[in-house]
Amino acid sequence: MGIRYFSLADGRKLAYARIGDPTDCPIVFFHGAPGSAAGLPAAVGRHFPGQLIIAPERPGYGESDPAPGAGILAVADDVVSLLDTLQVERCALAGYSGGSAHALGCAKLLAERVSEVALYSPIAPLEEKSLAEEMMPSLRELFDSAADDPASLVEQLTDSLPDVEELLERFLASMSETDRSLACKPAIREALIAGFERAFMQGFDGWGWDFHRLANSWGFSPADIEAPVCINHGRDDRNTPQVMARYLHEVLPHSVLRLHSGKGHLFSFDDDFVEVSGRNVTAAAEYPQFPTRPWHGCRG
To answer: Which of 51, 81, 269, 295 is the most exposed place for a label (fewest CB within 10 A)?
Structure first.
């Protein structure tokens, strides 16, 4: 994985990974929260051999400069500037977990330049209190802490998390048995740790502001997204529970929903999901638009 750097108009640095050879419709991948261009993007690269993947790191994560106070659309605008400079005229977007909100924000700004959006274990707007209440309590508390004062979450994390191994164990302790079993696989565990290690190169400020963005208004409604969206969700997911995927499916105008039995929050890391996820995203170049509801399957 090679990391590249882009200078934004305000002087900030945007770090991103570029994996694969140029293609007519590259995939722009938005990592989870917390996350980075390490770990998960490498797994996505294995899923989509031959496809160009552009994986930007959000402000404060990895080597991207912080942008305190920036909302989801402002962060998405950074990615649009990058794509403009790279002369990407059309692309597919893919978002994992907290990155799904940023994928949708980018879809809002790019409009007709987006061929498809693929979401994996997506989060829904936490302003919908009934959705937030379905999250596991330990994760909901972190979002609550960051909602008004991201600095308080940063202080809490700095004082209580000495290393990424402990962070991973704390996450797994509250996750489903499906996810805990999956994380026992050496390759998956290494990918998770690598992603966290790179994410926190600058400390926890990126995480604090990322959760702040997700916990507050996204600045747009998913109902505004005109691109076709394919939602993939594990039925055993406790981090972003199934009700969030169902909510997005109901609100997004052109969406399909795939609920995967026996899968949790980490299913996109697993090798046995390779062919399914590959069809979901690469279908964008072949099929310009998915059928809308009530058709509940992705082409491929």
So the answer is: 295
